[in-house]
Amino acid sequence: MNETGIRDGDHEMLIAAVHEAGALASSHFGKSNPSWMKKPGQPVSEVDLAVDDLLRQRLCGERSDYGWLSEESAETPDRMDREWLWVVDPIDGTRAFLDARPEYSVSAALLHFNRPVAAAVFNPETDEFFEAVHDGGARCNGEPITVSAKENMDNARVLVSRSEFKTLAGNEVLIPCEVSSISSIAYKLALVGSGATDATVTLTAKSDWDIVAAHLIVSEAGGIMTLTDGEALVYNRPHPRHPNVLAAGPGLHAMLATALKET
What we know:
With 263 residues, this protein is of the alpha+beta class. It has 2 domains: 10-144, Fructose-1,6-Bisphosphatase, Chain A, domain 1, CATH 3.30.540.10; 157-262, D-Maltodextrin-Binding Protein, domain 2 (3-Layer(aba) Sandwich), CATH 3.40.190.80. It contains 7 helices and 16 strands. Strand 1 and strand 2 form a beta hairpin.
């Protein structure tokens, strides 16, 4: 184990795997890809499954003692007993991917005793590769990134999902802000980490695989990510689901969390 608290080679293996997974997804972007609904409003495609298979082969092939949690894989009951756990969303923003909108991402993280210690979020269509290591900082395309220094809501740039835009753009808390929408919660959160936007908020429940990789990126970039009421996010629970998410720089996060909690 190295000074960042992860095994030698794990971060490099993660970066290589997510790069390869993004290239695979991108090779099918804008093409006709067979897809179906897992549940109402939740599309999945053959590309999601192919990317999932690739990531599992690359990440678990040399780490058979690591657990696995993915949106597109069958549940493994022993995941909560594993010291190390890969958490993956092969394509976050499948609807955007299928609609040929460059707003999807490949998201993957490594947890050590349920704490994220290495992470990558890759949007291959915009060529933005975000990554972070615990206590090692966050980067986009190899360059260090930090969250914005915004400390008030006046004209704060807030990204939300397309499905929540009407609701959140009209929310009294966010009226002073500049609210816009794109797909992929992982990508939106990574943009908070890079300072490209000031905050993101969702009132829709998210799973571990949607947010944990971006959580480390936001944290290592100096930001704060919690539930909307400011409570901490806890990962790898029996039901790995979170009712809402808020991420921003420290000053703006505190203001938004207080305002959202009051409403």
